[in-house]
Amino acid sequence: MTRTVVYPGTFDPVTYGHLDIIKRISKLYDKVYVAVAHSKEKGPLFSVEDRVKMLEEAVSDHKNVEVTDFDGLVVDYAVKKSVRVVVRGLRMISDFEYEFQMALTNRKLTPEIETVFMMPSESYSYLSSKLIKEIVGLGADISSFVPGNVEKRMKEKLKK
To answer: CA–CA separation, 70 vs 66, rounded Å?
Structure first.
């Protein structure tokens, strides 16, 4: 039996915190689907196609990781991919309440899907895509927060 997992998110943009979790779950599971949510309601900076491409470039050395996109419920995506485990990242205690609500709701909707929480390494626990967008907009160096391909695209997009 192949152990598969889905790691969903908006990834707008992908950060080293996201990549840390992807790297670690790719060692625990045979197949990892990194599922980029369309998230139109969040008004992402990048299109879903751009976010998928940036992630594909960033995880190209992980052969068991496949980057895809989805629109709708993550549990529906998981069922479609025959995945029974969803990984969610927890950076700070402030993330827990929202993620806990989401996990319980997903369990009620699709009881056969389990949610596993994973924390990024301490050195990335403070990173958020929202923070990265704010500081790059103010002209800060973000090279220690995101891969080079993402930094380049962010600067092009924000003309910084």
So the answer is: 13
**What is the reported pTM?**
0.92
The DSSP output letter for 121 is P
pLDDT at residue 32 tops 60: yes
Query: Catalytic site residue 91?
Result: yes
Neighbours of 4 (CB within 10 A): 18
List domains and CATH numbers for the chain.
4-158 (3.40.50.620)
Question: Is 125 annotated in the active site?
Answer: no
Q: Pick the catalytic residue: 23, 62, 91, 107? A: 91
Task: Look at residue 47 and give its three-state secondary structure.
Answer: coil
Question: Structure tokens of 139?
Answer: 């002209």
Amino acid letter at 76? D
Residues in CB range of 49: below 8 A, 6 or more apart:
69
Respond yes or no: is residue 42 known to be catalytic: yes
